[in-house]
Amino acid sequence: MCALKPDVSFHAPFESAAMLTVLHRLILPTEGLEQCDAMYARPALPERVADTSSSAFRLKMGQAFTFDTFYNAFSVKKWKQAGGVSRLLLSLHIRGQGEVTLFHRSKADVVTPLWSKEIEGEIRCAEEISAWPTLSEGLLYCSVTAQSECTVEAVYFATSSPMVQVPQLGVVITHFNRQQYVRNSIQRVQKALLQDTAYQDVIHFIVIDNSANLDPAEVPGAKVIKNHNYGGSGGFARGLLYLHEQGTFTHCLFMDDDISCEVEAIRRCYAMLAYSVDRHIGLAGTLLDDQRPWSVQEKGAEFSEGVFRPLHKGEDVRPIENLLNLEQDTGKPVYGGWWFFAFRLDAVSAYPFPFFVRGDDALFGLMNRFNIVTVNGVACFSEHFLSKESAFTRYLGMRASLAIYLMVGQGRALPAVKMMGLAFLWCALSCRYQSAQAILLAFQDVSQGADFWRHNLDFMPLAKRIQKEAVQCKEPAYFQSHPFHYEGQLETKLRRCVRLMSLNGHLLPGWALYKKPVYVGEYTSGLLGLTFRHQRIVYRKYESSDIFEVELNRFRLLALTWAFFKTSIIFILKTPFLRKSYRSKLSTLCSRNFWISVYK
To answer: Going by DSSP bridges, is the β-strand pair 169-175/139-159 parallel, antiparallel, or unpaired?
Structure first.
């Protein structure tokens, strides 16, 4: 199917059924995004071609590049599971002299060349991958070798199969007081995506402005809806209401307001939705660490016994063997984070629960029973989860965990108390009393029953009860001049026994405590052992230059522990009532009518 003259448009994502739909473009890093060369090409990034498409690059004589990478390898298994792609082609637009080779790498790490094509002059072609019907897993990727200077204008995987459905996609972005982020993001997307005539009528951006201070003129191409701040839950619920009210949208994509992702991720998302035969598909973007762009924070997630468990946590996406592992289904993903989560509107039977933030995405996935799909190359970047942890977020996270456990988990008293108690003690015994109190408040609030959520849609009055850590930002020299510990230390059985019996030193006399402070990372393994017998502790926030100091306070620990014990007894006695209350009112609080009444 190769010809010197093009038989497809190399810029349109889809055309008539007789033409091709682009599924997966070969891309180079977008300027301004967190970058890691090995996520795009090997052995290094090729030279870009100025004043042309962002994916065009030049090879000098003798150079060769391979694209078996996170962003550019094509996932066989995930596209096979979509079900709508019966024919697959590799389309090329290249000038110069060289060679292109297409490879398949199986999950057993067996590499098979599928075909090779010589380049002489200018070539525009769409070469069918005849092996596609027999493939079931692994990765497809190409390499380009230059015999003389060679320019690659475009390379992409495409199909001539008709779409299962032509999506009308509403991208819902919830915004709160991050005007510069959302302005920059929309402008970048506007330039790369919304000005493409092929997408103008099928992808629409809706910004839910929870801070009511965003000028619509600053986000051209997006629909701005000013909204009362009921958090992410309320913002995304408002976006769903808008999409349903319009009656023209078929799919929705939830995204954070910084849209820190390759625009190609949105294009691939659109294509996956168009070719999926699964009505309950939930396409979850991989979350990467913006400080270490190659490190996975979450690629799908589980929720079990009140615990959120990110899947593929900490995996490095650079080695090819890791990419093959990332393609495999790990655990039982039941939800996707709302930094990037796409689904069909006709599969939505439950709206977000009014959590404000934290836990809303998990319960949304559980209630709607989405079949969670993740695809290499559909990803976004964010600060690490742990760098954002504070007393506020612990309150929000723990109350969501407990409420969801009562609503859709087993809802048993003792496991719930154990879950809350372990989190409480970890903070209290390490002298982070503000966080311990926040967990106690979460326990007490959930124990009020399901009506608590209806009467406390606005989180800000509740937030005033939670003390903030006094965080300070330090220069790098500070951390070089102080002995910060980031790994736990071995301890004897006797020391561990004394530590436990003394409540990590709280019951020891003053003369037995070290006066000199200990310096530790907040999420260091063996944290309690490192802080034992220290009167003062200096914590470093995760992946940041922020610190906060705490001091051992026996009376505060005992007061908090007594309050937690009383709350636990009350919770145990009330558990049958609470479980019944939450389960009977869950459908109401997750209903479309509930949110219509909220925004009436």
So the answer is: unpaired
